[in-house]
Amino acid sequence: MASFSSSKLLFSVLFLSAFMFLSISCTQFEVGGENGWKSPKSKSDQDEFNQWASKNRFIVGDSLHFKYAKDSVLEVTEEEYGKCHSSHPDFFSNNGNTVFNLNRSGLFYFVSGISGHCERGQKLVVKVLEPANPPEQPPSQNSTTEKSQAIAIGTFAISSPTIVFFLLSFIGVLFA
Question: Which helix (H) or strand (E) holds 93?
């Protein structure tokens, strides 16, 4: 009987662990949507990529998928973005099927490496936000009120899947 309840408990824990893993989601965005990463055809499309980016919300852990033919993608500094030129980009790819991981919050700047494409509007700025539950900051030592506020904030930062996991694990132990 003990091995049966141990098996049930193990199954419950593994099932819930898988549920938690699946609840963490990152998104891969297709840069430019259906059009992909290509040089705009007309002057009216010059801001096409930044308009596309403004319609999306990017968080740390998401990725950008650049799909293109006979082109390249460079991650550059803000200054290089403004000049549409980079001698030493932070990232370079020309394989036609590039995935770029957004591994920090802040601004990312991308341009085409083909001469003239950036000037015609093949460039992109992506603003990446912090995840919904950022790591808790240590409370300051100045006042008790600040400490209690930090503790309250930390309590609300526990995600729903984590609470469900612990509750179901506890119930599984009781009834196993």
Answer: strand 91-93
What span, in angstroms and rounded, lies between the C-alpha atoms of 148 and 57? 32
d(CA 104, CA 170): 35
Q: Is the pTM of this model over 0.70?
A: no
pLDDT tens string, the chain, 176 residues long: the values are: 445 566 565 555 545 554 444 445 789 999 999 889 999 887 777 799 999 999 999 999 999 999 999 999 999 999 999 999 999 999 999 999 999 999 999 999 999 999 999 999 999 999 999 987 655 665 555 544 444 333 333 333 444 555 555 555 656 555 65
Residue whose entry in the numeric block shows the structure tokens 């006042």: 143
